[in-house]
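thread from #wetlab-drylab

HS: before we spend reagent money on co-crystallization trials with zinc ion, can we at least see a predicted complex? here's what I'd submit
DV: go for it
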Amino acid sequence: MDLRTVKFILTTTFLVIIAALIIGSFSNNQLLIYIMLGFFVIYALVYLIGWRCPECKKHLGKLVARQCKHCGHRLDV
Ligand SMILES: [Zn+2]
C-alpha cells in the first residue's frame, strides 16, 4: 500500500470518528457507536500495518519530518 494512500485513509477515518463522536453526543443513536468502533478498528489496523517505512519496514510512529527516523529514507507524504 502506498504511504500516501495510508495517510489518506488515516485522515479520513480519523475525521469520521470525530464526526461520529460529535453527532453521537447530541443524539442517542447506538448505530453511531458501532460505526465509530468499526472505523476505529480500521484506523488501528491501517496505522499498525500500513504506517511503515517502505525502505526499512519499521513503524513510523509520529512523523516529525518527511523522512524515516530509523533509516533516514525520504518519504513521499
Ligand atoms: Zn526507514
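DV: The radius of gyration is 15 Å.
HS: ok that's useful, forwarding to the group
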